[in-house]
Every structure is written in structure tokens, then in C-alpha cells.
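Sample intake — Bis(5'-adenosyl)-triphosphatase
Collected from: Lachancea nothofagi CBS 11611
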Amino acid sequence: MNSNIYFSKFLVTNQVFYKSKHSFALVNLKPLVPGHVLVVPLRRSVISLSDLTADENDDFFRTVQLIHRFIKFQFKADSLNIAIQDGPEAGQTVPHLHTHIIPRYRTNNVGDKIYEMIDEWTFDTWNERREEYLNSGGREGRKEFAKPDDQRTETTEAQMASEAQKLAESLSKYLAQSDQQMR
């Protein structure tokens, strides 16, 4: 990356593995699981989703979609959590809009906020996945796969820079393959 990139007041240039005109993707300081990354607007004064301009909004969500596809491919995820906590009352801890992209797998859970709804699912594939989930221990079984925030440890600067470099290389290959498949 040529110029410094900030996530709110935090210099994150070495954590960034993708940069577009108005957005960037970076590895997470305290990932829930491997592959947990963030997509963030470049403009630091964007605290809430409603602060994006129309151009920034288009770029931001194109970036979220690209990184979504890449993380699902790279980490061979069955599903992904895509989450925005918009404001401190919603759990936003850094005052800069960001979207979490978190790989999820059939064998350990189906996401953090839908457990109350799981009994309401009626589609056949969801019922099959629900059974797999329940058979793997359900809510209790998932706890060994995603640690609570107070039990997660920070990743070192060197580890994040290394992970970002590897993801940037993989994303470049992924984009080249995707581009060839589209032709």
C-alpha cells in the first residue's frame, strides 16, 4: 500500500489486503475464527452507514460482496456472517463504519444471532443443516469454536501483516481465476 490507511485512529496499513477507490479490507486484530476480516470505508469520518456518499456506498458494498466471495472460497466456508454494528448501542466498538465477514461451517454453527429462529426454519436444506447443527452439540457445541470476546487474544502486528500479505496474494490469484472464468 502506498499511503497510510487508518481504521478510525488506528494505523492499519500493514493489515490491509485489499483496497478499492473508497474502501479497504483488512485482517482482524481479534478474529473470532480464521478468516474473520473487516471491510471499511477509506474516509475516516464515516462512522455510520448513513454517512456514506452514493459513490462510497456503491464501492463499499461491491467490496463487501467481493471479499465475501473471496473469504468463502479461501476458507472453504459453508456460510458467512456479514455484520454491521451501527452505533455504540448496537455494539460498535470502533467509531468507524465496518462490516465483519466471518466464515461459518456446518460442523460447528450457523451464526451468532439466529439461534432463537432455528426452530422456525421450514426449508428442507435448512432442516438438514439444523439437524447437523443439533447433532454437533447445538448452542453448547459451538462454544468451543468461537471464543467469547474476553477470551480472544490480540494478533501481533507481524502476524497481521503476514496474514494480510498472504490474503492479498491469494485474492490476486482468485481475481485472476475469476476474470478468466468470466471470459
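Post-analysis note: The domain at 1-105 is CATH 3.30.428.10 (HIT family, subunit A).
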